[in-house]
Amino acid sequence: MSPLSALALWAACAMAGATGSVAAADPHGGDALRFALPAATVAAELARSDETAARQYAAALAIAVGAGEALKRATGIERPDRSNERSFPSGHAVWAFSPAASVHRRHGLAPAVPLYLAATYVGWTRVHAHRHRWADVAGAALLAAAVSWWLVEPRRSQPGAPRAALALRITCTVPL
Question: 176: closest CA among 137, 123, 124, 110?
Fold first, then answer.
């Protein structure tokens, strides 16, 4: 795991107050994590002194969230719990998948994998709480990926640039 993804995931878990066993039992655990993942991603990019990545990610998040809200109103798909007609796409999942897709685009797949797993967990909490269907989560993930690929530029390695020496290992146990 890269230092960037480790830092982002650690910060997201810390901000969300999620531990493996508590978070897995809470179908609303994704509520805090949907904001913690973007905040941790911006913090990690700024900690790397990569202001360009932070700005590009913030723009991608804003556009993806705005497009998601517009799609909710345009499609009028009823939620599984019948509370309203704003099911597609999942807003929580747009917030959660946007950092994963942006890190994937900027830094490659390996550092994004932990973020994709955390975003999938957020989607699971929404399905488990009967607020969305898996299609709503998948639509949100595709929207976040499309906007990230449009707005976030891949990082160009600079020859001779020092590599980060920070390493962090995070282990979460989720009983199924």
Answer: 124
Any residues with CB less than 8 A from the CB of 81 and at least 6 apart, and which? 129, 130, 131
DSSP labels, 143-172: HHHHHHHHHPPPPPPPTTPPPP--------
What average pLDDT score do residues 56-73 get?
96
93 burial level (CB within 10 Å; 0-12, 13-18, 19+): buried
Q: Which pair of structure tokens corresponds to residue 21?
A: 């066993």
- Return d(Cα 107, Cα 143) in angstroms, integer: 19
Q: Could you count the other beta carbons within 10 Å of the beta carbon of residue 61?
A: 23
Cis previous bond, 154, omega within 30:
no
Non-local (6+) Cβ contacts of 47 within 8 A are 7
pTM recorded for the entire structure? 0.75
Q: Phi first, then psi: give them for residue 83, nearest 5 degrees.
A: -75, -30
Q: According to the model, what pLDDT value does residue 176 have? A: 65
Predicted confidence at residue 13, as pLDDT, reads 55
Please give the pLDDT value at position 60: 97
Burial (CB < 10 A; 0-12, 13-18, 19+), residue 113, is middle
